Amino acid sequence: MTQAKPDQQAQQGNSSSDKKAQQYGVTPQSVDFNDWYNEVVKKADLADNSPVAGTMVVKPYGSALWERIVRWLDDAFKERDHESLIFPTLIPMDFIMKEADHVEGFAPELFTVNKIGTEVLAEPYVLRPTSETIIGHMWSGWLNSYRDLPFLHYQWGSVFRAELRTKAFLRTSEFYWHEGHTAHASEAEAQAEVRMILELYHQFCRDILALPVVRGEKTASERFAGAAATYSIEGMMRDGKALQAGTSHYLGQKFSKAFGVKFQTREQKEEFAFTTSWAISSRIIGAIIMTHGDDKGLMMPPNIAPIQVVIIPVGRKDNFEEMVVEADKLAAKLKGQGLRVRVDGREGLTNGFKYNDWELKGIPVRLELGPRDLEQGVLVVKNRTADDKETLPRAEAISGMKARLDEIQGFLLQRATDFMLENTVTVDTYDEFKAAIEDGKWVRAFHCGDAESERQIKDDTKATVRNIPLDDAEFFAEREDGVCVHTGKPAAYGKRILFGRQY
Amino acid sequence: MTQAKPDQQAQQGNSSSDKKAQQYGVTPQSVDFNDWYNEVVKKADLADNSPVAGTMVVKPYGSALWERIVRWLDDAFKERDHESLIFPTLIPMDFIMKEADHVEGFAPELFTVNKIGTEVLAEPYVLRPTSETIIGHMWSGWLNSYRDLPFLHYQWGSVFRAELRTKAFLRTSEFYWHEGHTAHASEAEAQAEVRMILELYHQFCRDILALPVVRGEKTASERFAGAAATYSIEGMMRDGKALQAGTSHYLGQKFSKAFGVKFQTREQKEEFAFTTSWAISSRIIGAIIMTHGDDKGLMMPPNIAPIQVVIIPVGRKDNFEEMVVEADKLAAKLKGQGLRVRVDGREGLTNGFKYNDWELKGIPVRLELGPRDLEQGVLVVKNRTADDKETLPRAEAISGMKARLDEIQGFLLQRATDFMLENTVTVDTYDEFKAAIEDGKWVRAFHCGDAESERQIKDDTKATVRNIPLDDAEFFAEREDGVCVHTGKPAAYGKRILFGRQY
């Protein structure tokens, strides 16, 4: 298994990163990545276990992070003339049954409501696993003419898909997301929407979350239940596994035919709408955690961090309150630059405890402010991505804060990109393929496109096709010819495709 | 029944408001207020009927309005150091059973989930009717010391309470809200929180929604199921009925004892936390509709309106596109002032249709822009609250837009306040009481505080105690002594209290 490499900048000067991590109470990534994840989620106050099987409780810090994700994406949708709606959480059971692939995909995961008050329902409801069906039903009533199109809709909310083994943010029976749903008068327009959204997701991941992702199309066996084509963005976690961070589906006329979503064309003919759906869910928080975190805990990319700068007033009993007042003044200055700042004025805690607590929470920059610093006009500055503190003239530290945060943002993206590229292997034989997957790498290989071969590869290696990188993808896009790494047949797709184990 | 009085400003120059309303396709308020409401909701594109019994689908315009409500309140909570969390939608059935009053209040309205996938559940879940129970359960794990308090939490989401007769926004089985939940180390602190929130709700209604509301305490029989005290804000709709627009509950130690939410005090003793909960729901949209609307449709208060100014390019076929371009330029100017502006560039619709459509949607200001206006450097301006158009020099219309919107906001609040005061009657006999209620008024009267008497009054008149106005309420706060209008016993509360029929 690929180990998260000790980051040179972050680990500089540590003789034993294991020991240090234990001191902070988190299992090192190299010892058990799964334990590391669960402990960080809980200790950084992102989420807690829930008394409801399969679900989580998102705590204030996790909720603040999710709200920032929601806000950014919501603004982006609105800028692109998309409109939000609110559909009911319950869906009549028979709606789910109307699209054959859809019901097959979702039936085993459905939550059923069979009683309201004391009345047992003849026709039960399900908690939505996704809303294509009820939205299709409503659209059929709203749509008359090509003039009504496109419908550019989305909603924020939660959906329900039964999970046996819970993992906060990554695998929960109730999860949080937006689901976009659009209807168009032509296939070309719908396809353009699907690709526009995929590109938006890509930009969001790259520029805001510092997550390098590979844009590509899923193979038929990995498509969304009911889609004609599914596109995804895939990111590499620090254990080498892939995480599908967002999806955008072209649904063709499948759902519009199932729900009668039709319109009169400009030429006065009757036609079914061409529809799309797309989503990013709360699992993206898992991607942030597992792409950037280290043995000290989280590392929040500054552009999404709920708190970008934490100020620790460092004083003894007799001057602590004065230092808190000074820290508040400093915070006001930084907030004046539009930065998100927190002063840790908690009493009765050691400075060391506070440093570790905020490092665990991944705050990009820590400032320490003591009486001597105040006297000397300096600030002690510590980047979360660095191991050493700096002492800087106060004015310089303040005026340089935005640039410092940008630098940290850039560093995180570069580090994650390097990690992904270093841990992706190009192979031509099935032995190389298996060895690389076993070693926790992603694999680029030719494939014949045969679904049965995909299934066998999965049985052999637990790896699946992550996607077929698009021609304009930032990574792995080169067009090439070759023969299938598994069957030796001529390769499909005109390029190597991406395999890996996944979350 | 109190009729919505023809608003003098809005109706000026109309010989027949009924006829005009019919032309726009909405039943006049004076003919059937209920039909008027349902038609306005649907025709203004706020919400639509849903295939799920008891629920609604909120359409883009309704969703945009709700989002603005959410944004304002969310910012206010955060400014006051409250933190959002996300709790699961499902709650174990036995949690609901733990607080006796709570289960009695909610049992008849619960949605039960009895199956996940193919597995029938031995212990069913309910869809949350409200989240005190699961939050109490989680708090019991998070709380140790008085140092951890206060917990100042809230969440946005939907809750489920079965309703047989649906009315969009006012009465739906699934509705949307925030629920605030706080825990404190002392009763005094918890009570202060309850009152602080009530005051915030009051300010929000008055300053943003232009809704005059009466802050007061509920009588014991009208309390939230499980509360030690319930406070509400009550507004008067244009048919004279009351709408409870927000509630704030002091829960004492009832829920903390049921769920073991206890802490070590400063004096090292064990104590149960003092908790509160509070909410404003999507029914507040019903209050906006029914307080401000007239026979032409909605009237959106400018401070909450998703669109404050709509620009109609008025052109013939040969110059329509040019007018759209000019309208877009004008929109950009107004947006530069921070205003929310829409250009109606739809083709193939008459100007009259567009005017009516945007009046129905209640856009505060309409601008009309035609070739001659452009030539002459003027704009045609129409306030939604006025009946006549004005023609103004372009620069004046633009620079005065903010002041114009403020004026409309002030006008709506004043008109609603006048309406509420005019339709509230002070009575001293039960005959007067019954006559006033029958006439669709609110009644101010003395009451003995006896629950059985309240029940009889309700049986006789369908009116209930709306609330006991607080001493610092903006309306009806005067302290007075007297005898009960119903029983002749000495009055409780030291003041007249407010009765009315309610939504």
The CATH homologous superfamily of the largest domain in chain A is termed Bira Bifunctional Protein, Domain 2
Q: End-to-end distance of chain A, in Å?
A: 15 Å
Question: Per CATH, which architecture of the largest domain in chain A?
Answer: 2-Layer Sandwich
Largest interface: A-B, 56 and 56 residues
Strand order of the largest sheet of chain A: 3-7-8-14-11-10-9-22-23-21-20
Radius of gyration of chain A: 25 Å
Number of strands of chain A: 23
> What would the principal axes of the Cα set say about the shape of chain A?
globular
Mean pLDDT across all amino acids of chain A: 93
Q: Which fold does the CATH topology of the largest domain in chain A refer to?
A: BirA Bifunctional Protein, domain 2
Major beta sheet summary of chain A: 11 strands, mixed
Q: In summary, what is this structure?
A:
The first copy, chain A, is of the alpha+beta class and 503 residues long.
Topology (SSEs and partners):
2 copies of one chain form a homodimer.
Chain A: H1 8-11, H2 17-23, H3 33-43, E1 47-49, E2 56-58, H4 60-79, E3 83-84, E4 90-92, H5 93-96, H6 100-106, E5 111-116, E6 119-127, H7 132-142, E7 151-160, E8 174-184, H8 187-208, E9 214-217, E10 229-236, E11 242-252, H9 254-259, E12 262-264, E13 270-272, E14 274-281, H10 283-292, E15 309-313, H11 320-336, E16 341-343, H12 351-360, E17 365-369, H13 371-376, E18 378-383, E19 390-393, H14 394-399, H15 401-422, E20 424-426, H16 430-438, E21 442-445, H17 451-461, E22 464-469, E23 497-500
Parallel strand pairs in A: 3-7, 15-16, 15-17, 20-21
Antiparallel strand pairs in A: 1-2, 4-6, 5-6, 7-8, 8-14, 9-10, 9-22, 10-11, 11-14, 12-13, 17-18, 18-19, 21-23, 22-23
